[in-house]
Amino acid sequence: MAASWGLVTVINKRLLQDVHPIPLNFLVRIVAIVSLLALTVPLTAFHVWPYGFGINAAAFWYIVAAACVTWLVAFTAYYYALSAGRVNVVAPVTSTDPLWTAIFALLLMGAALRVSTLLGMAVTICGVVLISRWMGDGSASTAGQMDGAVVPPLPQAKAAASAGGTAAQDGGGADRNVSVQVVALSLLAAAGWGLGPVLVEMAENAYGAPSAFMMLESQLIGMLALGGYILWRRAPLFTRRLAGHARTRLFWLLLASGALEALYAVLFYLVVDQLGAVLAMLLSATAPVFGILAGMLLLKERLSGRLALAVALTLGGVFIAIATRLSA
User: Fold this and answer.
1) The pTM of the whole model exceeds 0.70
2) Strand, helix or coil at 286?
């Protein structure tokens, strides 16, 4: 599950050279829906798994809420945070999403958290924060978890910049306001990403099991929300004119990204069913580790010593959190 998301990050980094961030998410949703159908229909038709396309009213609305929280709230806040702040501030704050999952699981479902889970969560979040900080160059707002694109600045950030650079240099009020806004938006994104899995688990509990319909419903709502935003803002899709080889490459990269996201969606719902939302999010938080490995293999990137330490810390935290559960 985490490996598929890590690969998606690497592929989306390349895609964002040609496609703007929100349109990219919209296009990937379309491919993911088609891929989900291609994956889940045969699994159901040939009885390879016990999950079908059923759903009830309670589960349906839980998934609606999860999709809105994820796509409309969390990702919107995430992009706006990146537009006003630097990635080495935004990424560490948003990487606290497993902690928010634990909080919401406790508040909404009364989930009991083991000491080993809390300890492992703390170690994993520490590792992910270090990965986020040590991977960022601090020179531009290049997105972290989902993309890698430079996002246009917010109006507030533009106004602060047009007023001159003295406020930023002197630690003035405008700079402090932007910093508070960036942290608040990053926390909102992390909370949204943390709440989504809890709502998914509540949907699975309401229906009695995960279903392919839940996976498709979430992607479809995301696609409609993103498409509506693009139409409303009349946002351009591509960063440059594409022709010939560039169009072909874009097609295959989109296909790979959407297929991997479909695989991630299926595995995520199954892991939530087996381990619960908290451990599912903790495992998913290791995706940057696999993104680093994919970057080394596919992009010939090098792994520094301290980044290797952060990777080991992240994986160690996950092992601490799930070791007791797996041995049971």
Assistant:
1) yes
2) coil
**Nearest residue to 144 via CA among 69, 93, 100:** 93
Q: How confident is the model at residue 162 (pLDDT cuts 50, 70, 90)?
A: very low
What's the CA gap between 128 and 12, in Å, rounded?
20
| Residue pair 127/309 in contact by the 8 Å Cβ criterion | no
Which residues are CB-contacts of 156 (< 8 A; sequence separation ≥ 6)?
Answer: 84, 177, 178, 181
Q: Which residues contact 55 (CB under 8 A, 6 or more apart)?
A: 63, 207, 211, 213, 214, 217
- 142 by DSSP, 3-state: which? strand
Distance of CA 154 to the CA centre of its chain: 21
Using the CB atoms, write b or e for 285-324: b if 16+ within 10 Å. Answer: bbbbbbbbbbbeeeeeeeeeeebeebbebbeebbebbbee
Provide the 8-state DSSP code for 214: H
Residue whose entry in the numeric block shows the structure tokens 């874009």: 250
Cα separation, 288 vs 230, whole angstroms:
28
Which of residues 151 and 243 earns the better pLDDT score? 243
* pLDDT tens-digit map of 34-88: 999 999 999 999 999 999 899 999 999 999 999 999 988 888 888 788 777 666 6
User: Distance between CA atoms of 316 and 282, rounded to whole angstroms?
Assistant: 12
Least confident piece of the model among 160-169, 198-207, 230-239:
160-169
Domain boundaries, the chain: 2-327
**DSSP readout, 9-51?**
HHHHHHHTTTB-HHHHHHHHHHHHHHHHHHHHHHHHHTTSSS-
pLDDT band, very low/low/confident/very high, at 270 (cuts 50, 70, 90): very high
Vertex 216, ends 211 and 220: CA angle to 5°? 150
